[in-house]
Amino acid sequence: MPSGANLIEVDGKSCTHEVAWPPGQEGGLLPPPPRAGPPAREYPFPLDPFQQTAVNALEAGHSVLVAAHTSAGKTVVAEYAFGMALRDGSKVVYTSPLKALSNQKYRELQEQFGDVGLMTGDVTINPNASCLVMTTEILRSMLYRGSEVVRQLSLIVYDEVHYLRDKERGVVWEESIILAPKTARFAFLSATIPNAREFAEWVAQTHGSPCDVVYTDYRPTPLEHYVFPAGGDGLFLVVDSRGSFREDNFQKAVAQLQQAEVKGRQSGGGGGGKGKKGGGVRDLAGAAKEESDIFKIVRMIADRNFDPVIVFSFSKRECEALAQQMQAIDMNGEAEKKLVDGIFNSAIDCLSEEDRRLPQIGGALPMLRRGIGVHHSGLLPILKEVIEILFQEGLLKVLFATETFSTGLNMPAKTVVFTHVRKYDGGGFRWVRSGEYIQMSGRAGRRGLDDKGVVILMMDEKLEPAVAKDMIKGAPDTLYSEFHLEYSMLLNLLRVEGVEPEQLMARSYRQFQMERALPELEARVAKLEAQRDALVVEQEESVTEYLKLSQQLAKLREEMRAVVTAPQHCLPFLQPGRLVRVLPPEHAQQAVSTAASAAAAVAAGSSSSSSSSSSGSSEGVLGVVVNFELVGGRQEGEVAGGTASSRRGAKQYLVDVLCNCSEDSLRHQGANRRRAVPIAPSAKGSPAVIPVALAELAAFSSIRVYIPQDLRTQEARERCCKTLGEVERRFPKGLPQLDPVEDMRIEDEGLRKLLRKAEGVEGLLSKHPLARSPTLAHRLDVLLQKQALHEAVRTAKKEAKAAAALICHEDLKARRRVLRRLQYTDDDGVVTLKGRFAAELSTGDELVLTEMVFAGVFSEMSLEQLCALMSCFIWRERSEGGNKLRPDLEGPYASLREAARKVAKVAADCKMELDVEEYVESFRPDLTDLIAMWCRGVSFADLYKQTEVFEGSLVRAIRRLEELLRQVAAALKVVGEVALAEKFESAIGRIKRDIVFAASLYL
């Protein structure tokens, strides 16, 4: 327990309490006592210690951060805040990260308190209510504009405040916290975070008032974590209800997974149940195939009454495919089926007859009646809400959902299943972080209904045991700042009297974290400098000279090897039986990092000639060529470990090489698109034939050995590997190599130049005064350590300097230059008419849109063209349709690209880190044709037939378009362009219809 923290325990339930006071203020460290008199809100159950402590802090006029597990009961604190506002006649705001979540929370709170309003941008209900539910973006906008509501605020509730670390939107949380009135207090609700105290200290410093931290690991319903090995038939308990990790059971699960892999390979399959998660469960002839793993798990859950269950997958299409595998399962009785029919039909009553016949609507009911549902962002919003309501009512027993279902409203299940734990995060695929795993697994276990929650992780051969263990045992994610500057932020700040952008940046959580890290960074610099200065290299100058020559030689050898391994030069010598040396998979990343060992080899006299050095005879692991083939169209990184020579979709030669490989790398080579790691024939491993790119062959020996035609048996491969070991023993100083000029007859002037240079460098090395020194290898090693420490000192000093300076300072100067050159501000930094317009926009690219409006691009367009062109600002996904453009949109789209290029060039000239062409291409026209059709009045059913995009994604795009049109119309009125504003409002009228804008069921 941290110093200054108080442990509060009642009836076996405990929480930790700390209080952060502003700098210069001193106060008590004990939790505030209960307020005298009746509470603002009473509950039919006794409050848990963390709930009571948080409530007392709010009543004492403090801010409070409540960090607790999902389903622990954090909502009680938000409800009490609403009760306080109604009792005291003040205003309270509840913010959430998502519009859908705001709608749900509005319904829930409105039923309890009555005097509740909702503001999400597209929906406004009772804006003068004492209690307002809104998205964080709406709150930020109100704070910038100094609305009357803001001046009356006494309390702001931030639900899911850990969204602050979201790369795109996290900055909105920081802005709104910093800009909130000094008189307001906060109730932050969050999942468990290890640095809760740090966040509370920032809030206390920013607002000059104490902030209490109430942290609990208490889980009302304890969890048990199980592993299901792919291809297996049982569960292994790896974390019990007391939180103890069962290492023995985990190892048993890993062993069963490996057995399933071996069995799968022997039977000619993919091994380990590979491929059995997706797709159907019947073959083309209609015969029943082996049951998929997920079918086994769901059936077992039903048999053991472990439902309802949420099955998490990170792919919308996989959610759909997994649900289709449940055709044989029916988990609802007749009475439940009737209830499902009633709720479903009531929900879609508001839709037109044509919309009710949409495939997604029509196809949902049969599955829902069986108690099985799907929930992801590709669903139509109304269908998603029906599924949420059915799940809350206990009418869905199995729900296949993406990660978004784990955010927000309290919808627990008895069991949670992870089909896999690899997700795409916009930049690439990665393993789920332990904090994300904790957040989602926290949905298991219903308070008051279950004695325990069950979490099942399906583990396949792609998931390394160490990764799985860290995920299950891991700690929650640290809360860190993703603060960054935006043009609309700067323009809004410049418009507020007495506020400068530097002030906001100085008060940001990111600046606070940087300054807090400064003493540690300075200590690190001192420590690294001491370590560096402690290393003494005898004759350092001379050793450095030798090292540079060695590195130069290593680089020349790399360049020569690239010539020698070109297909036209080496293919004639890749006959079966040729001995070759194979580079390790990571060689591409450390091409010249082995200079010390190379230099030591030269010093020892192992480099006999320039021709042998050209082949890198001492590098790599010995193997024998089996065959080679020309392949093409593979993805980068799929072949031979993803060397630098791989080109996306390019053809290349692959050489099948038999060599001894480590057991662990063999197990993972297919699953993770990595190459098995070759090891010395004498080391413990398994002989295997692996595909190797030409660029990863280090050397070609003049020796060839006999290999049997059939290498499919383990025995044949082992005999061949023994031959390799025998050859190495006979040539202890290295195998004879093919000379690239004499033997391989390579007629290449570039290679001859490289050979001459290499001979010259080798001559300098052999004549060097240190060449025969017995301590040379040691001195080189110490020098490399010293150089690495010198580089670490330089990096640490840079980090310390950045921590001491104002964050984003250079970015601010660059953005200010951009705004000045584009005339959004004048020379004195005063916001111009263009700047006032751009400041009103937050959905699309504010600068490009403003340039187009002020250039008159939209004035002569039809409503259809206007809507279609505006879709380029809200669509960033790559879709199958490509960049098709109607002839009448070619001119307007060219104007958009011209405006984007203008903005990008100015930004690049102002030292912004920006790729001009990439920026211009980011305005994708993929939806233009669909939006034009929608604007013409085409039905959603007909519109959907024209695209591969999920229905829900299309609805979300049209709704975002409406939001952008609304913002532009409002901004036009601000600058006095009433006629054009009316045109944009007419465009809104064209697209705002039917199922796309069906009212939320929560409203």
Description:
The chain is of the alpha/beta class and 1003 residues long. It folds into 5 domains: 6-215, P-loop containing nucleotide triphosphate hydrolases (Rossmann fold, 3-Layer(aba) Sandwich); 223-473, Rossmann fold; 511-538 and 779-804; 540-774, Beta Barrel (Elongation Factor Tu (Ef-tu), domain 3); 840-997, Sec63 N-terminal domain-like fold (Orthogonal Bundle), CATH 1.10.3380.30. 45% of the residues lie in helices and 13% in strands. The protein contains 37 helices and 24 strands. A 10-stranded mixed β-sheet has the order 1-2-10-3-9-8-4-7-5-6. It has a 7-stranded mixed β-sheet with strand order 12-11-19-16-13-15-14, sandwiched between helices. Strands 23-22-21-20-24 form a 5-stranded antiparallel β-sheet. Strand 1 (6-10) and strand 2 form a beta hairpin. Helix 17 packs across helix 29. The model is unreliable at 268-289, 588-617 and 633-649 (pLDDT under 50). Residues 55-211 form the Helicase ATP-binding domain. Its main location: nucleus. Residues 511-559 form a coiled coil.
